[in-house]
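Lab notes, practical 5.
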Amino acid sequence: MSRGGKSGGSVVLLSGGMDSATCLALASENDRPVHALTVLYGQRHAREVTAARALARRYRVARHIVLRLPLGALLESSLTRPTRPIPRRAASPGRIPSTYVPARNTILLSVALGYAESHGLDTIYLGANAVDYSGYPDCRPEYLRAFERLARLATRAGVEEGWHLRLRAPLLRMSKAEIVRTGQRLHVPWELTWSCYLGGRRPCGRCASCRLRSRGFRAAGILDPLLARP
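Output from the prediction step:
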């Protein structure tokens, strides 16, 4: 539902990875105007921010906000602690991986919620997906439904105007191969995306994120342009 008779629009949580890039393409197709929000929360490297900026330019978003929110010292994770090893394999079933960042999605979604309410946008896009929610508690469907309820209860627009924020996680039940195929259909520029946990000039090819990405491209029968670079 749009507010005050205005058209809707969306804000995409844009990390620069393949999932958020696919969400950006979907939002650009279905929920314009599109705003993008990239948060530097204290992750080990900023390489993905370069990717996010390039994607925002490619899709000509209405506005791209890069927000510095240096919480890394407070959030215990292998993604925020250079002294902790980055895992090379996915966590065992039922175990939460060391790359889980405490409350990250709640923090990012809260910022996006405030931005959406302030700018009359009706939809937030989040690149949570089926592979992740088996390990990350804040990527599960019940969490996302709970956050939508919170948005209605905790905002002035929700209380006074009956504003219903839509939290869209369109990749939620997709495998990585399905995400690659969807992105391919939408002409996502994979060469601009970044997935590696370690940063650097080229993907390491060894961390869990690189392995997951590689398996997705292989299963989809598509060459990953990042690996094709000299």
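Observations recorded by the TA: The mean pLDDT is 89. The first strand starts at residue 10 and ends at 13.
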